[in-house]
Design brief:
Blueprint: E1 15-19, H1 26-36, E2 40-42, E3 45-47, E4 61-63, H2 66-75, E5 78-84, E6 87-92, H3 93-101, E7 105-108, H4 112-121, E8 126-132, H5 136-146, H6 151-165, E9 173-176, H7 180-195, H8 205-212
Parallel strand pairs: 1-7, 1-8, 2-7, 3-4, 8-9
Antiparallel strand pairs: 3-6, 5-6
Helix pairs in contact: 1-7
Length: 224
């Protein structure tokens, strides 16, 4: 786990979105971030697809039927949602807004459509990173190596990759996953920079005022 010290009380949480075409390494990167950063939690989405082996309700997804998904989308209970390969995916609004108020940072594993909607819903809280593969050949090789999809499914995902990549300029940051450890480090750097953005650090106003006034506040008494 990371030795990163807790962030100051009163800081509003943020939404870190990591998006990529299927096979570019998005899931590997997000798992690594969750493993090294104790201040980051995964936002759990709802989906209409069936659980895969080893997946748990409320940990990987909330699994619901098509009717429940449609009702949530129509009522505004989802911050973002999309249909991907015939399956519905969406982010419940209430738990995200509650986490942000508590200063919790959330990690989102969603596509460009989800990023666009989340950014529109929470423009001051969302930071987006798009992960590019080094080449289409590398992308195909990674999909084949996963051995979780058949040939037809791989062909569908390759066909969708060009459309996914066409939206790369909508994101705040871009990384190329040709070196996985370096890519993880780059995404972690984006997260740390977002946490220390001046607009998000309003809770440090009292400390700044004391420093400006020449106060004798000692470092060990600061609420970091």
């Amino acid at each position: 786990m990371s030795n990163t010290q807790p962030y100051f009380a009163g800081r509003r949480g943020l939404c870190l979105v990591v998006a990529a075409p299927s096979g570019a390494g998005k899931s590997t990167i997000t798992r690594a971030l969750l493993g090294i950063d104790r201040n980051l939690r995964l936002s759990v989405s709802v989906t209409t697809r069936r659980p895969r082996p080893g997946e748990l309700e409320g940990v990987h997804y909330y699994y619901i039927d098509d009717a429940a998904f449609a009702q949530m989308a129509e009522s505004g209970a989802l911050l973002e949602w999309a249909t991907v390969f015939g399956r519905g995916y969406g982010t419940p609004r209430a738990p995200v807004e509650a986490a942000l108020r508590q200063g919790i940072d959330l990690l989102f594993d969603i596509d460009w459509q989800g990023w666009r909607q989340l950014k529109a819903a929470l423009p001051q809280d969302a930071v987006g990173v798009f992960v590019l593969p080094p080449s289409l050949a590398a992308l195909r090789a990674r999909l084949v190596a996963r051995a979780g999809d058949d040939a037809d499914e791989i062909s569908k995902r390759m066909a969708a990759a060009a459309d996914e990549i066409a939206h790369w300029q909508e994101f705040d940051h871009i990384v190329v996953n040709d070196d996985l450890p370096a890519c993880i480090t780059q995404v972690k750097a984006v997260l740390e920079a977002a946490r220390t953005a001046t607009a998000r650090c309003a809770g440090l106003g009292q400390l700044a005022d004391e420093l400006i006034a020449g106060g004798d506040r000692h470092p060990e008494s600061a609420s970091f």
